[in-house]
Amino acid sequence: MAHSHSQHDAHHVNYMAIFWWLLALTILEIAAGYPAAGASYPQLLKGFLLVIMALVKAALVAMYFMHLRFEKVALGYIAMIPLVLCVFVVLMTMPDF
Amino acid sequence: MSQAAAAHAVEPAETPLTPESWGKLGMWVFLAGDAMSFGILLAGYAVMRSKSPNWPVPANVLGIGLTAFMTFLLICSSVTMVKGLDAIKRGDPKGLVKFLGMTVLGGLIFLGLQAYEWTHLIHEGLGLTQNKWGAALFGTTFFMITGFHGMHVTGGVIYLSAIAWQGSKGAYSAHRYNAVEIVGLYWHFVDLVWILVFTFVYLL
User: Fold this and answer.
1) In a domain, B129, yes or no
2) What's the pLDDT at A90?
3) Best residue in B24, B78, B201 to probe A by mutation, most A CBs within 10 Å?
4) pTM of the model
5) Both ends of chain A: CA-CA distance in Å?
6) Which residue of B has its CA nearest to A21?
7) How confident is the model at residue A95 (pLDDT cuts 50, 70, 90)?
8) B195, A97: Cβ pair inside 8 Å?
9) A28, A30, A69, A70: which to substitute to probe chain B, counting the most B Cβ within 10 Å?
10) Range of B127's domain?
11) pLDDT tens, B122-142?
């Protein structure tokens, strides 16, 4: 996704490509969340698909719009901490999940 | 020890994590903390929903089309934000102000639509403690989560407006755009959180 037009910024990103990815994933998410009338599929698969797509979208925003991809790795660790802790919180508060 | 040396001992010239500025590191640390707040709200939502016998299907209560459009708006406003930063990096303060203005407009339309959505839902019978479609906690969590996010958008609109105003006064240039990059981090974070809220509260 790197773009080579810009000389003043070594990490220039093709932001429109990210935009189209985010838009396409949003449309796919709505389709996965609310399939056409009559169609149905397992709730667990639906949850899995939606969570994966949401995390991919969040990662695209963080990596390219927030430039995390071009920052020091340690800054990425700081950004990941809340996600890890929230997974712990869900596991702790849902003992029979 | 001379005064200059003492000052250096207190605050090194640069941070190893974000060599451009301390402010950028500060924003990242703040956002990590803020992400915990949103994360706890969403985790609480997941636990309460999984334990509830009569949680309604979100689409039966909430307007998915409207919020899909709101999602689209925030994604667009993230694009205008990065375009604004690009403009000032090229030394174009007019472009910066134009794109920041578009970003602010996106945020304002988002807030207007959210106000419309809330008014409609409250009118229909969804409240902090009541929900005619099922579990009352659906209303509680819905208003807490979208309200907390809406406050962030409000804060972002004010923050962006302040930076745009400074930009119009010539505060930024191709060599001085740190504050623009930092407000961008905040705004993209608000977009990122909405992506998660839209999935967990509206679609799942």
Assistant:
1) yes
2) 85
3) B78
4) 0.89
5) 39
6) B75
7) low
8) no
9) A30
10) 31-203
11) 999 999 998 989 899 999 999
> What are the residues whose beta carbons fall under 8 Å from the beta carbon of B51, sequence distance 6 or more?
none
Q: Are B188 and B106 in contact (CB under 8 A)?
A: no
Question: Over the Cα atoms of chain B, what is R_g?
Answer: 20
Query: Would residue B15 count as lying in a domain?
Result: no
DSSP category for residue B52: -
Q: Provide the CATH number for the domain around residue B86.
A: 1.20.120.80
Please report the ipTM that was assigned to this predicted complex.
0.87
Q: What CA–CA distance (Å, rounded) separates B204 from B202?
A: 6
Q: Provide the domain count of chain B.
A: 1
Residue B126 lies in a domain: yes
- How far is the alpha carbon of B190 from chain A, nearest alpha carbon, in Å? 10
B25, part of any domain: no
Q: How many CB atoms sit inside 10 A of residue B1's CB?
A: 7
**Whole-Å CA distances, B92 to A26, A93, B84, B98:** 32, 51, 9, 10
Q: Which residues of A touch B83 (CB under 8 A)?
A: 15
Q: Phi, psi (5° rounding) for residue B173? A: -150, 180
